[in-house]
Amino acid sequence: MKKIKFILIGLILVVSCTKEEVNEVITNDSSIEESQKLLSIAEINSYIKQQLKKDNDLLWMEAPANVLWSAVIHGNGYLSIGYGKEGDFSDRKSPESSKTKGNILDILKSKEALTKSNPITDEQEVLQYIEVKVSNLETIIALQNTNNIRYLEPSSYVYFLNTDNDDQVQKNFGCARDGRTVNPDDYRVTTPNSWIPWTFDIHNIPSAWQYSTGTGITVGIIDSGISDSQKFLGSDFNDGVSTGRTIQKFGTFDGSVVDDCGHGTAMSAAIAGPRNDDAMPIGVAYNCNLVSYRGTGDVLLESRKERKSVSEALMELADNPDVKIISMSIGWVWTVGNIKDAVKYAYSKGKMIIAAGGTSTTFTNWYAVIFPASMTETVAVTGIKENGKRCNICHDGKKIDFTVMMQRDDDSDRTMPVLGYRSDVRNVVGGSSIATATTAGIAALVWATNPNMSREQVLEKMQRAGEYYPDRNNRYGYGKIDVLKAVQ
Q1: What are the strands, taking DSSP E only, across 226-377?
Q2: pTM of the predicted model as reported, rounded to 2 decimal places
Q3: Which of 148, 275, 294, 340 is most buried by its number of CB atoms within 10 A?
């Protein structure tokens, strides 16, 4: 049976191994004549990897001007610019911010020799973000020396995760649409003829259903969408003893709500699959409402289009008063400015944002928690095995808040059963992806016991039910949640 590896959350981080190293970094103080050297993709990737190993992040604003410029040029000239005050969304039209935006446009007109054409290719006023096309190194240098700019990023540089060919980017990370055979020891049958995954009993989820099934709570999920071939996340969302709830599907990526990857379907099933009478696996919060956004093509947020789409989805979920929880089993290996701002915006609206700590086969030995789980505004989750150690391909670190036991000790293929991509098949998924979706469902169970609770009150209940509470483990946070304790 083909082994399915869910990456970065399902993230198989395959870093292109470069023979070239960046032996010389030309600083902003060097003359333009000396530094007008377009670095190769291999040289840029070498710089990126050095920064990730050093800081567990990459801040392009602090990169040497020629490194940033080279990445922009290799990304078709697209540059993302965040300006104004970070995290303050109360007054986004202040004179100071307007002045900064004007300064940016003046630099572009001067350095890019623009006349009447509008250099802005994308804009988000609330987040104070614009995207422009640039071609000259002088533009980058001038912007790096401009006050009140929060970030400068090459929004379309997609060559960090490569195959042997620098022009070939690996796609479809975390995607799997084939059904999987479930080991009979990895589930048990309950009324009215549905399957309880083995992982649920570890967390006392079935016992917690005596007190809460998620009724009245709406969970938002940003992922690859939901399959139109899975009726239990469509026409039969209310099936068996799952009743009176709603599912909504939206798309900010490629104008479609339909999952053609499989990852989003699996995560949605883990959160909210119905307690059915068709011998199919149940979701954690089988009576919650679900709002799905197709914001990505797979789990990696490496492309300009995906980053814009996820940022838009976060904004729309933030402005939806019904949504209390946002689940993100997606991410990237460094901070993305417009997504970071959107996370902060959703957090300012009281949303609990649950994000995957990361899953990979390459970076687990030296890379900790990925973005956006690395942000203080998110709840970071990873997966562990029965023996309490991280799953084979899961990340851990001091920024992890909770763990979910989701892998057998003796078989990495035996993880959590969920609904399949089609209505007639089941799937088995793992990594920090499924741990995140499970935790989103747990948060819905806790919140449903008192919908008037604040995010902080719900989070405290989850923390107090953690295996390490009142302490915090430096790799696993509060650890596994005893959900029965949390809902009581």
Answers
A1: 247-251, 289-294, 323-328, 352-356
A2: 0.92
A3: 294
Give pLDDT, residue 173. Answer: 66
Output the 3-class SS for 59-119. Answer: CHHHCCHHHHHHHHHHCCCEEEEEECCCCCCCCCCCHHHHHHHHHHHHHHHHHCCCCCCCC
Instruction: Give the C-alpha distances (Å, rounded to integers) separating 354 from 2, 85, 357, 448.
Output: 29, 25, 10, 17
Q: Any idea what DSSP says for residue 416?
A: E
Contact in structure between 74 and 47 (CB atoms under 8 Å): no
3-state secondary structure of 366: coil
For the chain, first and last CA: distance in Å? 41
Please give the pLDDT value at position 31.
46
CA 80/CA 232 separation, integer angstroms: 40
Q: What is the pLDDT of residue 365?
A: 67
Decide: 407 and 431 in contact? Cβ < 8 Å: no
pLDDT tens digits, 127-185: 999 999 999 999 999 999 999 999 999 999 998 875 443 333 344 568 999 999 999 99
Residues of the chain with pLDDT under 50: 1-34, 163-171
Q: Which of 368, 362, 392 has the alpha carbon at shortest distance from 380?
A: 368
Distances in Å between the Cα of 330 and the Cα atoms of 132, 224, 312, 488 are 26, 9, 15, 31
CA–chain centroid gap for 373, Å, is 7
Amino acid at 98: S
Distance CA 348, CA 291 (A): 20
The amino acid that residue 146 corresponds to is T
Q: Using the 8-state DSSP alphabet, how is residue 370 labeled?
A: P
For the record, the structure tokens of 418 come out as 């969920």
Nearest Cα to Cα of residue 107 among 95, 94, 96, 120: 120
Give the pLDDT of residue 119. 86
Whether 42 contacts 19, CB under 8 Å: yes
| Packing angle, helices 431-448 and 455-464, rounded to 10 | 110
d(CA 289, CA 422): 21
Helix ranges (DSSP H) in 145-262: 198-202, 205-208
Q: According to the model, what pLDDT value does residue 5 have?
A: 38
317 near 326, Cβ under 8 Å? yes
Joined together, the tokens standing for residue 310 give 């996820």
Helix, strand, coil % in the chain, rounded to nearest 5: 30, 20, 50
Q: 411: left (phi > 0), else alpha (psi -120 to 50), else beta?
A: beta
Query: What pLDDT, on the 0 to 100 scale, is given for residue 85?
Result: 80
Distance of CA 468 to the CA centre of its chain: 26
Tell me what pLDDT residue 91 has. 56
| Cα–Cα nearest to 324, from 479, 454, 420, 457 | 454
Angstrom distance (rounded) from CA 98 to CA 342: 20
Cβ distance 221 to 327 under 8 Å?
A: yes
